[in-house]
Specification:
Blueprint (H helix, E strand, L loop, with lengths): L3 H8 L4 H8 L7 H7 L5 H18 L6 H8 L3 H6 L2 H22 L7 H26 L4 H24 L2
Length: about 170
Amino acid sequence: MVTPRAAVARCACLDIRCVLRKSGGKNDNNAAEAFMAEIPIHVLAVLAATLVAFIIGGLWYSPLLFGSAWMRAAGLTEAQVNAGNKARIFGFSFVFLLVMALCLERFLAAPEVTLATGSLYGFLTGFGWLFFATGVITLFEQRPWSYLLVNGGYWVVALTAMGAILGGWR
């Protein structure tokens, strides 16, 4: 017999009631899937988080904030940036941010997540994963530290905002 405490440890769920209801209280290898099936996707929150990260990126990489530093660090001229296919760049960027927001929403799907914990988990995702992943790329591409600070900094801010929206939207 599986106790609720053992079931939580086995499937790492925060809310065992849905797992036990789905599995009839038995040891079920699909308990985690049952748990996630019980939690709907907050589509409007995902779209809002995507849009906010997109807007932050627009401001972050503009001349108002870090656009000039980013171009220098990336070795791009203004002519090269202006010659890019804007529909392709902005369209795919939005889709990629949408996928990221959806994945982050699933990580933050537990009912106990709040605006504060969502912000913290977003920050940890941005800093712990994306900032340092960008750092590895920066090192291998032999880019200046400003490249890491501008690009990695964007991810920390964007993911923190996404986490806040997704955690606070209940």
